[in-house]
Amino acid sequence: MSSNHEESDTDQESVLEFERLESTLPPSLKRSASSLLEAIQSTPTHSSTSIQHDSNIKQPQPRHPNENNSYQPIPGRPTTTPNLKNSTFRQNLINKLSKSENGRESSPIPLPKPRFDESIYKPALNAKSSTGVLWATERAGEYGYNQESVGEWANLGQGSPEHGDTIPGSFPRPKSIPISDDSKGYAPTAGITELRTTVANLYNELYRKEKQSKYTYKNVCIVPGGRSGLTRIASIISDCYLSFFLPDYTAYAEMLSLFKNFAPIPVPLKEADNYEIHLKMIKEELQRGVSALLTSNPRNPTGHCMKPDQLKVLHDMCREKCLLIMDEFYSHYYYDDGCTGSSISSAEFVEDVNRDPVLILNGLTKAFRCPGFRVCWIIGPEDYINALSSSGSYLDGGTNAPFQYAAIDFLKPEKVLSEMKALQVHFKMKRDYIISRLTKMGFHFNEKNTPNSTFYLWLNLSHLPGKLSNCLGFFHECLHEKVIVVPGFFFLINPQNLSHLEEVIWYNYVRISYGPEVDHLVKGMDGIERILSRFGCLPYDIKQ
């Protein structure tokens, strides 16, 4: 009798834990979590043994978008929000989420505490803003993760690459930064001239050797990080429709929602198309009056990029009609050219550097593996750069001066080429490792869904049973294995909460980063393997 009582308490803890996890989601994303609960509610309760070993039992699958980005209702599936106060439903839910069913016997990890004390009054505070990576890290912190001392955790949700001297052939990162008298004062909000000149020369050498029009320091604005660069850009554009494509970088949502001087228009891409941006789609956006377009290329989170011939056509279509804002932070994580150190950039297809309305963002953060430096840049026409410099005076005050001087040596063309070769060989090896491990676990990869750039994998969970096919359920189980991933629905960047996008939620995807060191990737893959083993959906015996 006592044993049954203890098991019931454990089951109650499991469901409360999941409810608390769901309660921390932004309101627009709670729908996806609710669909998981509905899927669980509609399925008869089975014993642990029958769930894991009876192959004839069809596991519940949450609803998912069809090719036209609208849900297909499943017969017999409830469509109302689950009533957690209903004792019958609640017991059914407890059974389906119970630790005894999924094999996670007991966990030394404490239950997460509510994030906010609602009894404390916080005037004027907006506590709802949070990017997907930050949300995932915060939830992991409630399970014992310490960002400054990761210990046994594998953070496969991080948006930064390994930043130590861990890559063969890579130049050593500085252990100290000299501080000259010149760098003790405020740097210009456009950045120091020497670094601006160095960036311009690098782009001319890599992408514009045969072009008559060349970049100069007047075409470069140094900014304290990519988000700061995007915020500056958002502050200087006005009275326009700005299109961006889904899924994409989660921080876009916060940036786009802060400014009311333009109207952001989300354009969902199709899962059946592997989320590829077709030029026909861009043409349609231009025809309906869009005069600014924002995209990451290579793309976060899918790990793909536009081909050079596509980029050329894109620039020809938009020249003098539409401002192109090209987030190119992953341009050097490019594996289609044999890891030769080559990269892909819109700079190659700009005809006149002061006439073509193209803004390019990049920096030390990703390719040079120095995210802590907060030294990035925007390249574009002089008029735009002047406006961006002015906006920095009231938005962020400019970039750290000593780190700007230190960055100059990083950007010599011959050093960059050698560095990029080393980077591409190393990260392609890491990509191939996680794809190999996941393939053995039953995930399927082909040319379309294998990333050819970035250090991200957009992983489809739809073939997994029950809870694991939902990104929140998968994330929840990963926390118990000390693994962090980013649920796919955070890449639904919908700053205006447009009603027709409510159904476009990537509940069955997570983003996995292979940015961390190899030993962290091994821990992460081992943790995912243990989860699939507990749910009885590995194609092999984990003990072998």
User: What's the domain count?
Assistant: 2
The tally of helices reads 16
Overall SS class:
alpha/beta
Query: CATH homologous superfamily of the largest domain?
Result: Type I PLP-dependent aspartate aminotransferase-like (Major domain)
Which CATH architecture of the largest domain is right?
Answer: 3-Layer(aba) Sandwich
Name the helicity range. Answer: 25-40%
Task: Sum up the overall morphology in one term.
Answer: globular
Major beta sheet summary: 7 strands, mixed
> Any low-confidence stretches, pLDDT <50, length ≥5?
43-85, 97-101, 105-116
| Average pLDDT for all residues | 81
CATH class division of the largest domain: Alpha Beta
How far apart lie the N and C ends? 37 Å
Total count of strands: 12
**What order do the SSEs take from the amino end to the carboxyl end, as H and E?**
HHHHHHEHEHEHEHEHEEEHHHEHEEEH
> How are the strands of the largest sheet arranged?
2-8-7-6-5-3-4
CATH fold topology of the largest domain: Aspartate Aminotransferase, domain 2
β-strand amount: 5-15%
Rg, nearest Å: 24 Å
Your description of this structure?
- The chain has helices spanning 2-23, 30-41, 48-53, 87-97, 99-102, 132-141, 193-207, 226-236, 251-258, 279-287, 308-318, 382-395, 401-407, 413-440, 471-480, 518-534, and strands spanning 154-155, 220-223, 241-246, 263-268, 292-296, 323-327, 358-363, 376-379, 456-460, 483-484, 486-487, 509-513.
- With 544 residues, it is of the alpha/beta class.
- It folds into two domains: 2-158 and 461-534, no CATH class; 182-414, Type I PLP-dependent aspartate aminotransferase-like (Major domain) (Aspartate Aminotransferase, domain 2, 3-Layer(aba) Sandwich).
- The protein has a seven-stranded mixed beta sheet with strand order 2-8-7-6-5-3-4, with helices on both faces. Strands 9-12-11 form a three-stranded antiparallel beta sheet. It has a two-stranded parallel sheet with strand order 1-10.
- The longest helix is centred in the C-terminal third of the chain and has 28 residues, at 413-440.
- It is globular.
- This is Aminotransferase class I/classII large domain-containing protein.
- Pfam families: Aminotran_1_2 (PF00155).
- One of its GO terms (molecular function) is transaminase activity.
